[in-house]
Amino acid sequence: MAAPCWRIASRPLWLKISGSVKICGSVRNVSCSSPQLRAAQKLSPAKAASPWVLHGAVCLQRLPVISQDRSPIEEQFMDMMHQIELEKSLMSDHELRLLDDAERMSRKQEADYDSDEEEDYGGQEIVTAQDLEDAWEQKLKQFQPASRTDASDTTDVSSSERCLGNSLVLLVKQDVGSQKLWLLPQQPWEAGETLRQTAERALTSLPGAELKGRFLGNAPCGFYKYKFPKNIQTESSVGAKVFFFKAVLSSGSSPLPLPKDSYAWVRKDELQDYLSPEYLKQVKRFIMHV
Amino acid sequence: MSAILYRSAAQLLSSPALPAGSAVSNVTSVRHSHWFTSVLSLKTTVPLRAEPRKKKKVDPRRDLIVKERLKKKLKKLEKVPPELIPIEDFIIPAKCFDETRVRGTPRLSFEESERRALLLKEWSRFKYSQHQAETADINEALKAQTQALEELKLESEELYNAAVSPDLSLFPFQHQGPSFTPPLTNYEAPDGKYSDITRVYTQ
Questions:
Q1: Are A164 and B167 a contacting pair at CB < 8 A?
Q2: How do residues A23-80 score in pLDDT, each as one tens digit?
Q3: Which of A59, A165, A188, B65 has its CA 20 to 30 A from that of A69?
Q4: What is the pLDDT of residues B49-98, one digit of tens each?
Q5: pLDDT at A218
Q6: What is the pLDDT of residue B80?
Q7: Residues of B in contact with A243 (CB under 8 A)
Q8: Nearest Cα to A219, choosing from A246, A200, A192?
Q9: Which secondary structure element, helix H or strand E, spans residue A243, and what is its range?
Q10: In chain A, where does DSSP find H-type helix?
């Protein structure tokens, strides 16, 4: 009992659909343990119809747009680095000019100031370095950059503009079997296409026409498999295997025409509020922290 | 005595027409030597009297060979090693040695230097833990991918092969990285004026 149980437990994922977890030695597990045998079996013309229904899913990520805020230690270290760099540096032309101007100013204030003694004094208006600095600062103030934090957007989960410093993943509420579940957009695999094409279909099947994703390679980044509840299980479909493909959002910031509650852009730490535990366990593996 | 005898004996041998009685005299008749022609004939020298010289075919070639040798020597002298292009980064500009630019070295208090040392240590610990977390994330993602590929292989060979085949449309991959502030919508950046002063060297 112990050995088979351990092997089954090490296999990832059982979706707890109706609260009943079936642990039974299926044909699948036996064949999994001997891949060579299986390969030999494959040579026979009747390819052993695997009892798993294949799905392709897309993990669409909007990568960060702005840099993250610095932690306290990072702030301290940055200040210290700036200080050390300043101490070890030489003075630039602009600084020398500032010092000269300051010296000339102080000489002008003296009572016995004679302008003829001044060298390089052409008799015309001198633009001091300080004036230049003021002019530059004025010019900088004319430019208003966009603000880093837009507090209103952090809570609106359906907008892809929230949390610009983190990468967001797109989740949709789809019906699987009889239930509506939050998951990464997926589509069942059809014969004659590769799984990547299935994932691309999953992306395009979402109503938002602007969502364009750049897929990162032909290989899946993760998978999740689950068994159907006993009443749905047939000979050829014991369960389903979902293969995830990573994609990077390349364009499209307009909200999807889906109803607001059926899709969400979430950070990695918010995933647990939406996904079921076993599904989450697999999905978290390939989503990077930042 | 013996020398005179020897000389007269040699003369006797060279001019057999001489009568035996006049062997003692050193003066031989001019006519009998090929070095002295008759007084009546034209005065010619030996080279002039020789046969017309045959134009040796080697002569023009010899001239050419001499010319080539001279040219080669000239080339060797002219061969100057090409001047190496200076690497601008390795030349310290003269401004750095200007002493007027040196800032007064600040005296750090003991507390300040201690604070800096402790902060550096804390920073190294922070960065180490950050790196560990990053490598753990990457390894986890890699494991997830290899497991997914294994499972796919168990499913169907052709799908596995399609997944493992390289994606040629992926590279060159370009992505705009994060900036400090988000991009402004409908912003037109003004053209900046610049003068390019990079030095171009030719060898």
A1: no
A2: 433 344 434 344 444 444 444 444 466 788 999 999 999 999 999 999 999 999 999 9
A3: A59
A4: 677 777 777 778 889 999 999 999 999 888 888 888 988 889 998 888 88
A5: 93
A6: 82
A7: 148, 151-152
A8: A246
A9: strand A239-251
A10: 2-10, 27-33, 35-42, 72-88, 93-109, 129-141, 195-205, 277-286
The rounded mean pLDDT for chain B is 82
- Whether the CB of A52 is below 8 Å from some CB of chain B: the reply is yes
As a three-state string, the secondary structure of chain B is CHHHHHHHHHHHHHCCCCCHHHCCCCCCCHHHCCCCCCCCCCCCCHHHHCCCCCCCCHHHHHHHHHHHHHHHHHHHHHCCCCCCCCCHHHCCCHHHHCHHHECCCCCCCHHHHHHHHHHHHHHHHHHHHHHHHHHHHHHHHHHHHHHHHHHHHHHCHHHHHHHHCCCCCCCCCCCCCCECCCCCCCCCCCCCCCCCCCCCCCC
Q: Look at residue A136 in the predicted model and tell me its pLDDT.
A: 95
Of A148-157, B21-30, B166-175, minimum mean pLDDT range: B21-30
Where are the domains positioned within chain B?
2-31, 119-164
User: Which contacts qualify for B171-174: CB closer than 8 Å, 24 or more apart?
Assistant: B173/A214
Tell whether B142 is within 8 A of chain A (Cβ): no
Provide the chain A residues 218-237 that lie in CB contact (below 8 A) with chain B: 218-223, 225
Query: Is the sign of the CA dihedral B186, B192, B198, B200 positive or negative?
Result: positive
Q: Is residue A255 within 8 Å of residue A262, measured between CB atoms? A: no
How many angstroms separate the CA atoms of A219 and A206, rounded? 22
CA separation for the pair A265, A162 (Å, rounded): 8
CA–CA separation, A273 and B29 (whole Å): 144
What whole-number distance in Å separates Cα of residue A250 and Cα of residue A255?
A: 15
Task: Specify the pLDDT at position A34.
Answer: 42
- In the prediction, which pLDDT does A252 show? 66
3-state secondary structure of A246: strand
Average pLDDT over residues B174-194: 89
In this prediction, the residues of chain A whose per-residue pLDDT falls under 50 are 1-47, 123
Closest-CA distance of chain A to residue B196, Å: 20
Alpha-carbon distance A104 to A91, whole Å?
A: 18
Task: Look at residues B180, B55, B73 and name the one whose alpha carbon lies nearest to residue A164.
Answer: B180
